[in-house]
Amino acid sequence: MRYLIVGCGRVGSALAKLLDADGHEIIVVDENPSAFKRLGQKFKGHEVVGTGIDYEVLKRAGAASADGLVAVTNGDNRNIMAALIAQRMFKIRRVVARIYDPPRGQMYRELGVETVCPTTVGAKLIRDVLIKAPWATEGFDYGKLTSATGAVGANDAGKRIAEIEQAGKIRIAAVRRGSSEVILAAADLALQDGDEFSAVVAPEAISDFAERFGKAKTSSKIPA
């Protein structure tokens, strides 16, 4: 796959090296030639000097045949402009822009531009470390939902998954029973004391989920 990365800062260069190591064709665009030093000598991709909000620069970088573009400069406006040019003028299907301002991220997602907001992601990670959340969480879909791991305690043992799930709020994907058995969730599956499960949880249900299943996890006898 061919990917364009606009911005060769810490994130852009790290992403470029990861994708390059995975065997993709990578083109990095940055207006500062010295920024390419971050890519190192093992980088096999291409470097294009210029601004990522210039149509001609992106065209020279091969945007017309790119499978995806990521804009990770240090400016929200530049990232959005690069993303919109890629999406609307080059018809690139996969476009992602880093946005530091959460409200802007939501606005541009409504326009069809996928955004990643390190402000929101970082805040959630710090919150979980600060309060030592007893459940494991992994944010995705840019803050709309959370992937969480909980455990079944005595109060919920014997209940079916359908009784645990909440429409639009909690959806269970898989259950781990014992040290090695993993079961895909089914509505009629009866849960046992000590079962651990993965679920997708809406923001408004996180507190209830933690209260009910986080404490259960800390007292369960699931092998490490």
Helix content: 25-40%
| Number of helical regions | 7
- Give the neighbour order of strands across the main sheet: 3-2-1-4-5-6
Question: SS-based structural class?
Answer: alpha/beta
CATH fold call of the largest domain: Rossmann fold
Q: What portion of residues belong to β-strands?
A: 25-35%
> Which residues form runs of ≥5 with pLDDT under 50?
215-224
Q: Could you say how many structural domains there are in total? A: 2
Report on the architecture of this protein:
- This protein is of the alpha/beta class and 224 residues long.
- It folds into two domains: 2-116, Rossmann fold; 130-219, Regulator of K+ conductance, C-terminal domain (Alpha-Beta Plaits), CATH 3.30.70.
- Helix content is 32%, strand content 25%.
- It contains seven helices and eleven strands.
- The strands form two sheets. Strands 3-2-1-4-5-6 form a six-stranded parallel sheet, with helices on both faces. A five-stranded antiparallel sheet has the order 7-8-11-9-10, with helices on one face.
- Helix 4 links the parallel strand 5 (94-98) and strand 6 (114-116).
- The longest helix is centred in the middle third of the chain and has 14 residues, at 118-131.
- The protein is elongated.
- It starts with a strand and ends in a 5-residue tail after the last helix.
- 29% of the residues are buried.
- The model is unreliable at 215-224 (pLDDT under 50).
